[in-house]
Structure formats: structure tokens, C-alpha cells
Amino acid sequence: MNNKTIILTLLLLFASTLKASVEDSFTEANNMYKDGNYQGAIDVYHSILDQGYASAALYYNLGNAYFRNDDLGAAILNYERALKIDPSDKEIQQNLDYANSKTLDRINKVPELFITRWFNGVLAWFSPNQWGVAAIVFMLLLCACAVVFFVTRSYVLKQVSFYSAVLMLVLLICSVVNASVSKNRAENLQQAIVLVPTVVIKSSPDENSTEKFIVHEGCKVTIEDRLSDWCKVKISDGNTGWVENEYIETI
To answer: Bridge partners of 213?
Structure first.
């Protein structure tokens, strides 16, 4: 057995041991949650995150623990993080909607065009990676249809494979576009959650500047700019202002 084989074997054993340790910690945290020890569950979930592991299930369970521990802002933050990984999970969306119903802010959203609302709804079906996988699947199916079209001598199969290929091409293009848009939004659209009971949004990045409006714990904001310890944020009704970084946390 050469040195490379030994190193690879040791790395695999280490990864396997680490995975088993994470699974044990996850089970331990889940049991703490069931027993009503929500703070203990929160601490263990965070210890898993500190090891570099993250998943929709982990953030979802962490959000549930925070919600039961009466920490609404942190609960919404982690539900949002779970939904970002798996936007098609209806249970995560339901819990997020319920948590949002407990917030104090009632902000009227800027109306969206029907086509924009529809497109955003389609994007939410999958994460960027899932759209990428869908694109690969449709590409393989397109290739399969093309092979059938050129190989078969049956007129009926040629027709079926031709129209199937056209459909796969359309779906492939849609998947590529959705994957690209989703990835771009994930990388460039920064959103955050207010984690303190009440925060005053200022007109400029200065404690002595004019107060514009007030938001409360759990409010979702979009980060438009950063300057030192301040962020310029926009809420869903289009109003903008500045808030200190310590009062919000990026999703």
C-alpha cells in the first residue's frame, strides 16, 4: 500500500467518523427539542453549523427551536436560510409564514406585475443547483430524442421524437435561464432579518441623522449598500434608510 492510498484511506475514515459525529449531534439536538430543552437544542445545532455542515433540515429545526424559545427574529432568519436551500419545501414555507404573522410590522408591498410575480413563483420551485440539475436532465433527454429521431425508421417514432426534442429544448432553455437568474440573485441579492425588538431606520449612516421609520424584530430587509458599520436597507414597501449592522443579520 503506497503513501497516497494510506492518506486517502485515512481521509475517508476521518470523513466517515465526522459524518457519524454530526448525525449523532443532530439526533441529540432533536431529542432535546422533543424534551422541551430548546436552548440546549439550539446550542447543539449551532455546534453542527460551526463544523461546516448546513442543510435545509438543520436550519429548519434550528428555526423551530428558536421559535419555541420565543426568539422570533432568529426563527425567521433560520426559516429563510432553510427556504433558500430548498425553496420547494412547503412545510418550511408554512412555518415561515406563521412566524411572519407574529411580527409587529404590517408593511404594504410594492405591487408586482403579473408576469414578474409568475416568474418569481417559477424560480421558487427549485434552488439554483436544482435548476442546474434539471438543465442537465433535459439536455440528456434532448440527446436521447435526437438519437431516436436519426436512428429509427418508424414515421410515428420520428414524429414523437421530433416534438419531444422540441419540448426538451424549450425546457432546457428555461432551466438554464432560471438557474442563471437564481444563481445571480443568490450571489448579489442580499437580504437580512432584524434581530432586535425595535430599530430606528435613519436617513443617513449617522446616529444623529433624522429618523425615517421604525421596524421591528423579524422584519425582512434588502441590503442596498454598506458603509463602515452601517447598511442601507429597503423594506418591501420601497422605503429606504440606514441601520447599524449589529441590529440585522444576513440570510
So the answer is: 201
pTM, whole model, 2 decimals? 0.76
Q: What CATH number belongs to 190-250? A: 2.30.30.40
Do 131 and 185 touch, CB atoms closer than 8 A? Answer: no
User: From CA 208, how far away is CA 200, in angstroms rounded?
Assistant: 12
Bridge partners for 250 per DSSP? 192
- With beta carbons less than 8 A apart as the criterion, state whether 240 and 185 touch: no
CATH superfamily of 3-101: Tetratricopeptide repeat domain (1.25.40.10)
Half-sphere exposure of 225 (CA within 13 A, CB side): 7
Q: Are 221 and 234 in contact (CB under 8 A)?
A: yes
Query: Any bridge partners for residue 47, and if so which?
Result: none
Which of 14, 15, 45 has the alpha carbon at shortest distance from 29? 45
pLDDT (tens digit per residue) in 78-88:
999 999 999 88
Extents of the domains making up the chain: 3-101, 114-188, 190-250
221: left (phi over 0), alpha (psi -120 to 50) or beta: beta
Sheet holding 220-227, edge to edge: 211-216, 198-202, 240-244, 230-234, 220-227, 190-194, 248-250
Q: What is the pLDDT of residues 127-144, one digit of tens each?
A: 888 999 999 999 999 999
Show Cβ contacts of residue 54 under 8 Å, excluding neighbours closer than 6 positions. 81, 85
Q: What are phi and psi of 221, to 5 degrees?
A: -130, 155
The Cα–Cα gap between 243 and 248 comes to 8
pLDDT tier at 217 (50, 70, 90 boundaries)? very high
d(CA 74, CA 49): 15
